[in-house]
Structure formats: C-alpha cells, structure tokens
Amino acid sequence: MSILVTGVAGFIGMHATAALLARGEAVIGIDNLDGYYDPVLKRARLARLNGLPGFTFLRADIADDEAMDRLRLDGVDRILHLAAQAGVRYSLENPRAYVRANIAGHLNLLEVARRRGVSHFVYASSSSVYGNSSAGPLTADAPADRPLSLYAATKRADELMTECYAHLYGFRATGLRYFTVYGPWGRPDMAPTLFARAMLAGEPIRVFNQGQLARDFTFVEDAVSGTLGALDRQGDGHRVYNIGNGRAEPLMRFIHALEAALGTRALIDLQPMQPGDVLETCADIGDAARQFGYAPQTTIDEGLPRFASWYRAYYGVTSQKGG
User: Fold this and answer.
1) Is domain 2-179+220-243 given the CATH code 2.40.100.10 in the classification?
2) Which residues are catalytic, by number?
3) Other CB atoms closer than 10 Å to residue 59's CB: what's the count?
C-alpha cells in the first residue's frame, strides 16, 4: 500500500516524505510547484526525492477539481495532506488564493479519502487557529473561534470540514496544528531565512511589535517525528494535536541565537504590530506525547546552527557584510 503526500515539494512535505521512504514506505507525492515563493527551491527539494526507491511524483493542483478526479492513485491507503497556501501576511494581499487552496483544495482531498475509503487522513492545520488566546501552553481544546487572519480561518475551516467527513464516512482523521516550524530547506518567506539573508548582507531586519513577540519554534525533524507518529496513530474518529516544542521563545532571544549561529550581528528595525499576527504561541504537547510518543528534542541553540549551515551551503554564502 502507498501513502499519498500532498505538498511534497514543500518544506515539511519534503522532510516527511524522505522519512517515510527511509522506513520503507511507498509514497505518491503531488505538488503544483506554484510561484508563491521561488519554485527553484521547491524543485531542489524535489530533486532530493526523485529516484529514491518507492517514490512517485505527480504534478497536480489540489484545487483543480477535474485534475484531482482524474488522478490515478492505485494502492493509496493513507493520506498525508500538507499542501496549502501558506503565510499569514500574504493572506492580506491575496485572500482568494487561500480559499482556493486551503478550502476547495482541502475538500478535494477529503473527497479522495471518501472515495478511496482510506484508513487514515492526516492533514496540516496551524497554531494560528488559536488567535490571541490566553498566554501559556495551549491545549487542543482551547478556544479556536476568533481567527486573526484569513489563513487561520481557512485552517480552522479545514478542521471543521474534516470533522464532518470523518463522522459521515467513518475514516480515521488527524489534524496537526504546527507551531512555527524551521530548519534546513525552510521557506524563504519565514523569519529564519528573511533574517539570515538580511543579516549576512548587512541590512536591517524588520522586527514587529517592537520585538515583544514570542513563538514556539519547532525544529523540522521534531515536527516530522510528530507527523509520522500521528500517521501511525491507532484509534478511531477525528482528533487534533499540537506539534510544537512546548515552550515560547522570545523573538529577541531567537534573533540572538541566530546571530550566534551565523557569526554576525543583526541591525534591528523595530516595527509596530503587523495585522494578523499574534503575540505569543506555545503548545501544550501532552496529548501528542501520550497518544503517539511525541517528544521534541531540539532547542533553538541546536537547531539554528543546523539551519545556518544549510543556508550558507544552499545560497552560496561564504562571508557576511554585517559587523
């Protein structure tokens, strides 16, 4: 039997697929290689998977109803749905892209799950669904009904649609609320890459809310460990879990750790709060630990040097202009 992985050329998608192949699974990966950010990075991720035993790639857009209905998915028994229109801030500029990819696309994958009678449907949600919920570790049953961005609203809609389908059609489903995943091969629109590029060029980095933000930064290998653990989850019904590191790191502490990893100083450009952002994220990962042994291991002091090493190698950066 095979596992269908959507968003296979994405950040978490590539890492999760490599881990699945390493343990002997057969994977059918789909991606549309869209231009939200430079497809060269997506193709480079995909090149790491092509040719590996058990991997098949199909180029497809999950929001294209006819294309998804025509897709040949012989032998698929489980689905790991990671494809989405990502990015909180971009949802302010192009909201229709989020409805198309994250709602229509998610519905198409639920229809694939229904038609094929899959044993397990696992999908990416987001910590953004919590909005500005009270500080402290957030449990999966914390309020998630006041999203601060359209991106968050679409992810919460995905959870509700999945609850409906799992109830109506009886398949097992698991939603994963990822908390700020970072690491090698990360997206260029996320803070680690944006900061690293500016810092190594001697340019200022924009820091929102005057730096008074905190995030639960999750190293990608830990996120993948949780993802595969969730995919192997036993039991029935639809459940939602947090995939985080279990601690809120002040943004300025993260910047200082990145400075140490890159060997350069950051020029800070303090900015007001960005619309759609939240003040703090922190995951309660107790349920994931109990249900499938999720146990993140990587601190930012360990993860950021690994990110920095990849960044220099991939982008060909050998020196910096920053002082």
Assistant:
1) no
2) 151
3) 12
